Amino acid sequence: MPVLPGDAVRVVMTKWGERPHWEFDCRLLGTDEHGDWLGIAAGTRMSRPGATYVAPTNQVGLVPPPGPEAERGWLATFHDVGGPVRVYVDIATPPVWDGAVVRAVDLDLDVVCGPTGRVWIDDEDEFADHRVRFAYPDELARAAMDSCDLVHAAVRGERAPYDGSAAAWLARLGDLLSH
Asked: Which of 1, 38, 117, 128 is deepest in the core (most CB within 10 A)?
């Protein structure tokens, strides 16, 4: 059965080698040309082995749309005003829908736009370490670096969907939560 707007969704991220990573529940808000938008309410608990994080503000997640796999190696999160960052993009294997579950393998690299608008790549050291320690195949490592470069350029250039496209979805989430 297809997942419809308003339906509960679970995001399950693993690390390479089937090691567990972040998991959390959210709701499908809808779909547009940028992909599937997920509503993550303030107070949502996100957990991974050894850590829990509670979302301090509303957020919307974005699962990239169907297309060339080389352009889909990420999961983005856009934070409401007052969040710790504006945009946080996990570089990952291309996400797949498994019923009402979104699955991807987090490949360590992150593209972040902070509250002041500064954009940077985070966890390059972790990627370099894990690439060796967990024997990332060369093709996987290249795909992660290529995705990181594409996403970094898009966020820095404020190109869609990093151009304010998330604002309407954050507003939709706010409307849903107020009813």
From this structure: 38
CATH of the domain at 98: 2.40.380.10
Whether 47 is in a domain gets the answer yes
The per-residue b/e assignment along 122-132, b for 16 or more CB within 10 angstroms, e otherwise, is: bbeeebeebbe
The token pair at 159 is 């190109």
Task: Label residue 43 exposed, middle or buried (CB < 10 Å: 0-12, 13-18, 19+).
Answer: exposed
- Residue 18 within any structural domain of the chain: yes
Alpha helices in 61-165 (DSSP H): 124-133, 138-156
Using an 8 Å Cβ cutoff, are 129 and 142 in contact? no
Number of compact structural domains in the chain: 1
- Position 1 in a domain: no
pLDDT tens digits, 69-124: 889 999 999 999 999 999 999 999 999 999 999 999 999 999 999 999 999 999 99
